[in-house]
Task: inverse folding
């Protein structure tokens, strides 16, 4: 039995040990179990592990090196050579689009990213250290499915204070981001007999696919300059809807007062459920008051979802759902079928991060940074693209740039790519209906002000290119 390599040697065999080892490692490389660049154990360690002479390992390694399977790297020992098997060269992103690294973009303006260079590493470490020092043995046992009590309690008061969410620690569940929340909600809806769920159109294509994969049918409902069209929603057969009321994804429009009221009236009338994805509300740069969560209007009808993906980093995978009390057990049953809860240590760390005021401090810094970037982009658009219009509320980590009627969206996206700007058109987010306005959905949060001015200037060059073609 070897611990260092998944490889067995047959001591009864007439095949010499060197050859067994050589062909065993070669097969592992060819099968892709040992990947290019993977380190091999030192000859001393592997020999001890396999209980064979070190010279056997040295010889097998030397033969494989001569054959080009292994390379010997100064100081870092022996590694698998880069044989570049065919499947390695054609890696694409999860969406089937070229992976980020394969796109030759000077400006990648695709949405969905927070500026993780601002992640407060030292502060986070302080919280995690404190948590590890004070965690009880119970904290290291399997967690409660709904999440760590400390974080649920902290989030309850935080969300009440900053988003007017009305919830209690008992009806709040922590999740691995909103994505897991959505998976749980989808399963909950199936358990409750829903076959369909209404979604905003345009909306998040990934979320739509997610719902479909779980077995729900997403029903597209158009969005206009007041947000989701509640009349069209009422005309659909869906009794559940997924919405982004504060900063519609991707148009950026805010659900109007009258539509908020109509949405809640609809939910009460059809015995429906509103899923509120409050994904980027911490960033609001408008002079107008930031609208509170819709959940506060009807806590018995709305499941409110949020996450730390935009405020801190998506890699943390920390999210939450605040659900009506009667849905909490159904959600817990769905959760029990999925996993055994989220990491308690990370949750305690986040609870401490909120409780000690570090989240507020971090948000103040990031708001300033994102606001300056948006302002720089807005000014550059006014200067360089005077026929373009930024629509939707100035908020969140992306902005919607409406394009003039004389430009085709597809042509502009293509011309922009040729000028080094990777950006998506509104059409990318459309499901069934044409987007209310053709335009570009610009992820502006991860770029410096200078870089955004450069991107606007490259877009202006793309426009000139189309017009002279
Ligand atoms: C519309 C929308 N909702 C939610 C999220 C956050 O998802 P998660 O919390 O799983 O990272 C994103 C992230 O890009 C998003 O675009």
Result:
């Amino acid at each position: 039995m070897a611990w260092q390599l998944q490889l067995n040697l047959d001591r009864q065999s007439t095949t010499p040990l060197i050859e067994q080892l050589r062909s065993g490692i070669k097969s592992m490389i060819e099968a892709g179990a040992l990947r290019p660049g993977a380190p091999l154990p030192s000859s001393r360690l592997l020999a001890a592990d396999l209980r064979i002479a070190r010279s056997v390992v040295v010889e097998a390694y030397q033969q494989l090196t001569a054959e080009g399977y292994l390379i010997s790297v100064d100081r870092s020992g022996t590694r698998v050579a880069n044989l570049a098997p065919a499947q390695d060269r054609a890696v694409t992103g999860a969406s089937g689009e070229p992976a980020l690294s394969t796109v030759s973009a000077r400006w990648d303006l695709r949405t969905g990213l927070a500026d993780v260079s601002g992640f407060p590493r030292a502060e986070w470490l302080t919280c995690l250290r404190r948590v590890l020092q004070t965690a009880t043995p119970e904290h290291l046992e399997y967690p409660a499915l709904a999440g760590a009590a400390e974080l649920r309690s902290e989030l309850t008061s935080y969300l009440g204070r900053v988003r007017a969410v009305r919830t209690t620690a008992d009806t709040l569940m922590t999740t691995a981001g909103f994505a897991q929340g959505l998976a749980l909600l989808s399963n909950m809806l199936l358990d409750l007999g829903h076959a369909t769920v209404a979604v905003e159109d345009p909306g998040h294509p990934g979320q739509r696919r997610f719902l479909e994969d779980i077995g729900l049918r997403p029903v597209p409902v158009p969005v206009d300059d007041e947000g989701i069209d509640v009349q069209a929603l009422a005309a659909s057969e869906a009794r559940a809807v997924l919405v982004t009321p504060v900063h519609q994804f991707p148009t950026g429009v805010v659900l109007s007062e009258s539509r908020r009221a109509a949405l809640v009236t609809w939910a009460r009338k059809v015995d429906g459920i509103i899923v509120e994805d409050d994904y980027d509300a911490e960033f609001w740069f408008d002079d107008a008051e930031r609208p509170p969560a819709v959940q506060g209007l009807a806590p018995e009808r709305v499941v409110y979802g949020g996450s730390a993906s935009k405020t801190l980093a998506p890699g943390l995978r920390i999210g939450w759902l605040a659900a009506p009390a009667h849905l909490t057990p159904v959600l817990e049953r769905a959760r029990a079928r999925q996993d055994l809860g989220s990491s308690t240590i990370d949750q305690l760390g986040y609870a401490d991060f909120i409780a000690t005021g570090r989240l507020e401090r971090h948000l103040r810094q990031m708001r300033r940074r994102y606001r300056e970037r948006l302002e720089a982009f807005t000014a550059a658009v006014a200067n360089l693209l005077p026929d373009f219009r930024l629509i939707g509320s100035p908020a969140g980590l992306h902005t919607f740039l409406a394009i003039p009627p004389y430009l085709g969206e597809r042509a502009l996206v293509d011309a922009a790519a040729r000028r080094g700007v990777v950006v998506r058109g509104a059409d990318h987010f459309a499901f069934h209906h044409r987007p209310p306005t053709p335009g570009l959905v610009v992820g502006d949060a991860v770029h410096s002000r200078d870089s955004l001015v450069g991107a606007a200037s490259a877009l202006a060059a793309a426009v000139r290119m189309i017009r002279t073609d």
Summary: The pocket of pyridoxal-5'-phosphate is lined by residues 112, 177-179, 204, 244, 249, 277, 279, 307, 309, 314, 319 (CB under 6 Å). The first strand starts at residue 70 and ends at 73. The longest helix spans residues 358-384. Residues 17-87 form a domain with the Arc Repressor Mutant, subunit A fold (CATH 1.10.10.10).
